[in-house]
Amino acid sequence: MIRRFSSTPAAMAVLATSIGLAVTPIAAQAPTDESEQFAVEWPFQTGEAARYDVSFGPVKVGEAYLRIEASESIRNTPTLRLSFELDGGPFFYKIDDRTVSWLALDPYRSVRFEQVLKEGGYERHRRYELDHDVQTVTREDWDETAGTYRPHETEVDEPIPEGALDEISYLFLIRTLPLEVGRTYHFDRYFEDEGNPVLVRVLREERVRVRAGTFDTIVVQPVIQSSGLFGEGGEGEVYLTNDDRRLIVQLKTKMKVGELNMFLRDFDLGG
Question: Domain segments of the chain: what residues?
Answer without folding.
Answer: 3-268
